[in-house]
Each structure stands twice: as structure tokens, then as C-alpha cells.
Amino acid sequence: MSEPLYLISIGLIFGTILAIFAMKYLSSARQAQARIAIENSYRELAQKEVATQAENAASLSAIRSELTEIKARLGAIEKILKEVE
Q: In whole angstroms, what is the distance from residue 50 CA to residue 37 CA?
């Protein structure tokens, strides 16, 4: 076996091993980036959900206060109607 052929074959073996490790590293790096992007989108979704829940709580509180006011008015109207009878 000639020396150039020997060096080329050893170079191909080491090059293949190096290429495999490089692809594995790049794959892991892209998976980590994708995982970070997914976590960020979940975090944004959770923040939006918290804001929506706060708005819903405020709306529910306003509805309850209006309902209490309506009940008070209805009670006053019933009292007036009973007095009229």
C-alpha cells in the first residue's frame, strides 16, 4: 500500500468520525434552540393567560357589584309595591 493512499484512507476515517460528531453537535444545538423557543412561547402564553384571568376577575367583580345594585333596587321596588297594596 502506498503512503498517499494510506494517508487518504486514514484521513477519510478520521474525517468521517469528525463529521459524525459535528452533525451530532449541530443536531443537539438545534434541538436546544427549538426547546428554548418552545419554552419562551409557553412563557408568553402563560403571561397572556394571567392577564386574561385578571381581566375576567375584574369583569366578574363589576358584574357582581351591578347585580348587588340591581337586587337592592328590586328590593326597594318590591317594598314600594307592597306599601301601595
A: 20
Measure the CA–CA gap between 3 and 9, rounded to whole angstroms: 10
pTM over 0.85, yes/no: no
pLDDT value of position 32? 97
Query: How would you class 23 by CB atoms within 10 Å of its CB: exposed for 0-12, middle for 13-18, buried for 19 or more?
Result: exposed
SS3 content of the chain, % helix, strand, coil (to 5): 95, 0, 5
- Can you tell me the distance from the alpha carbon of 44 to that of 37, in angstroms, rounded to the nearest whole number? 11
Q: Which residues of 31-42 are buried (b: 16+ CB within 10 A; e: fewer)?
A: eeeeeeeeeeee
